[in-house]
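Suppose you are handed only these lines of text.
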Amino acid sequence: MAIGSVPLRYKITIDPDRCMECGRCIENCPYGTFRKEGDRIVAVSRNCTACHRCIAMCPRDAITLVEHPVDYRSHPLWTPEAREAIYNQARTGGIILAGMGNAMPLPSIFDRLLLDACQVTNPSIDPLREPMELRTYLGKKPSKLAFRRTEAGDVELETKIAPNLMIETPIMIGHMSYGAISLNAQLALARAAHTAGTFMGTGEGGMHPDLYPYQKRLIVQVASGRFGVDIDYLNRGAAIEIKIGQGAKPGIGGHLPGEKVGPDVSRTRMIPEGSDAISPAPHHDIYSIEDLAQLVRSLKEATEWQKPVFVKIAAVHNAAAVAAGIARSGADAVVVDGFRGGTGAAPKVFRDHVGIPIEAAISAVDQKLRSQGIRNEVSVIASGGIRDAADVTKAIALGADAVYIGTAALVAMGCRVCGTCYRGLCPWGIATQRPDLVARLDPVREGEHVANLIHAWTMEVSELMGAAGINAIESLRGNRDRLRGYMLDEGMLQVLDVKTVGA
Amino acid sequence: MATHIDAAGVHYTPLNKEVRAAVAAGETEIVLDNVLGQRFIADGLVGEVTITVNGVAGGDLGMFMRGPTVVVHGNADHAPGNTMEAGTIVIHGSAGDAVAHSMRGGKVFVRDDIGYRGGIHMKAYHERRPYLVVGGEARPFLGEYMAGGMILLLRLNAVGPFAERGLASGIHGGEVFIRGEVEDRCLAVGAVRMPFGEEDRARIRPLVEEYCRYFGADAESILADDYTRIGPAGTRPFAGKYTWE
Ligand code: SF4
Ligand code: SF4
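From them, the structure of the protein bound to iron/sulfur cluster can be written out as follows.
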């Protein structure tokens, strides 16, 4: 039986009274939605991905985009998405690829956590007047310090302090590889990290030479495919991150399709042009926590113990136990990536159904490490769906030292979260390698936008801290007393270790 | 005169430090005596130097290495040649799992056997091509996800065809040569048999000769045998696996 076509998802209309037939929409839509017919512009709404590029570029505000009303028989279980996915797979027999983060309508825990503020007896702090300490050090901290008195009577520190990363804000930019995003996008992020006094992850695609000037602000990634990894790459990074898992697709590897492996990506990843870049699900030299410890140590040994080594895992049910293992593996920080984490391409079934919320994972990890007395041995970084300064503050209050932002940084550069990144045609020049599209993104201007975002959020975090009577990020970390749960069930409150509102 | 370092009871970090310092001072011959499982020997080491390891090398020997030659008189633990870029590792004995993992240049020779996942995810880029030569046997998943380079399994004491499963599963570049027969059921997804002709014999000849130079076997008789050549069905093994949202 014929499946036929599914209904339109979006409907694009052009107001003929406003349109002046300049053709900018035709130029700007890489999906071929618009074409000229006579002296009219017509739109094939079926091609639209709701990326908003045409709307943003139309000089006459002539374009309207709406989600197209769906006329299936309504059914609480057999949603239009469920039915359409079946049509798609019945036709193609393939795994459905999707971009960006989890798109299920699940409640956000962050939104059900409320921050505290001081009143009369313990007055709030005014960040304009009082110094606020947002500087954060990532890496191992000694549990106690030993001193020695020299013959001259001076006091000298005996404890050897492990290398730490110093950031002026608890906000960093997460790993998005060259290949998944464009070089201009990476350059913009690197510039932003530089301006904001923070760090940016290279992702697992190696480091393009154009990023070398920013290498002091880059954390290099070692993933299972080992793309672009050599001793120079390791030495360039300010820190090294081993990627075990990713929030958008826990338990599986990555796969950059061959058509995206052009000459430059090929050189940076050190693989032949046009071949698939396959990152296997596991690292083939890590089949146990002891093996992980071995990789941590081999990276340290190769770089002569000069660099902190992070380990990134996806937030899953046993994340806390795994994090405890990581803390004992010699790693300096554990990065936990929640199920809202974005990606260039993931099987939809993974993106939407595997993993757990970052809020629960971070709290569980922090509690586990504290209960084992090893919280100080490792820093904790939260990522995956951090949308604003409130999320940053709450993540830290739940036990993170710092956060990584990904999608938020892309949105600051124009991304409309259309979720079509896997097609490689990103109209904003972000998730694409097509030169004409890449050229749309100005690394200088967009770098400023991202830096502005981090600056703004950092100010908001310090205001929120001040309101809660806290003047140092150290005192916010794991400070669940500043949080209350609103409309969260008993079990969740227990996992989060926060009291309910009114308590 | 070679620099001798006594590794007895020395932790790997000071040991590697000493090696590095010697290389930095211009030493081209280093002998490590009494090595007993120290990991990461020559990890990330860059330079033209020959390191002789007397004893058993621990895991990740020569990881990220670029240039040196490491000769081990004894066995090696897992993943010698891991993510290595250039240079040569010669092991007079056997090695563990994941030998030459993700190696992208240089050569690894193992006189006897290797464990599981040998040559896994080996890859090539332009003139950089990795080679793994094993004189004995290899366990399952040899050449899995291989993306470039060459694996040569000589099976010098073999009886019967190669019968370990997961051979070259997901291979999308490079090739595996196995002396003698290979059972059909071993070939995993994406791996196909390719014809083995005289030009292929000529291509493996230098590797066989080099193996025999190190370990003293007869190259001509090894080369006279039949080989099974395995390569990728395509460079895009998973291209048809996905559909768009
Ligand atoms: S895909 Fe983007 S540019 Fe094209 S019509 Fe839709 S919103 Fe406009
Ligand atoms: S990066 Fe581009 S393709 Fe991806 S969601 Fe954002 S706008 Fe869409």
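What can we learn from it? The two ends of chain B are 66 Å apart (CA to CA). The pocket of iron/sulfur cluster (ligand 2) is lined by residues A 51, 99-100, 410, 415-421, 426, 428, 430-431 (CB under 6 Å).
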